[in-house]
Design goal:
Distance between the termini: 23 Å
Oligomer: single chain
Helix content: 10-25%
Order of helices and strands: HEEEEEHEEE
Number of helices: 2
Low-confidence stretches: none
Length: 130
């Protein structure tokens, strides 16, 4: 899955999570198994490092770090309960792969500089005739 496709699907997920105002300013890069989301929020760049996880027919994301300018901190260490709020907002972010044929599920996911390499498996999968 190319990075551009991943970005489009994540933007759609942000909109579904009620974070649509943030979606147009988000840029995505991937390397070392982490997806980085960066949004220019006027005075500084807010960034999140997310670990993608396979979940049946979807890709979900776990927040592993938050970046404010040059500072990187664990989301649970963000003061005033804002880290908990961030985890609650992003915690349900997922990419549903509804286009997969019935019976096919994700079994693995590896991030690289070009996007995501997904591994799939399935049983009794009907492939439509064209």
């Amino acid at each position: 899955m190319p990075t551009a496709t991943l970005q489009e699907l994540l933007e759609r997920g942000l909109v579904e999570q009620g974070l649509g105002d943030l979606a147009p300013s988000v840029t995505i890069s991937s390397s070392t198994g982490i997806v980085s989301l960066d949004a220019d929020v006027r005075l500084t760049v807010l960034g999140l490092d997310l670990a993608p996880v396979t979940s049946g027919r979807a890709i979900t994301f776990e927040v592993v770090a938050a970046r404010f300018g040059d500072a990187t901190i664990a989301p649970e260490d963000i003061p005033l309960g804002l880290g908990d709020e961030l985890l609650a907002q992003i915690g349900d972010l997922s990419i549903d792969l509804d286009a997969l044929p019935q019976g096919v599920e994700l079994t693995g996911l590896t991030m690289n500089d070009d996007g995501a390499l997904v591994q799939l498996s399935g049983e009794n999968v009907e492939i439509p005739q064209q």
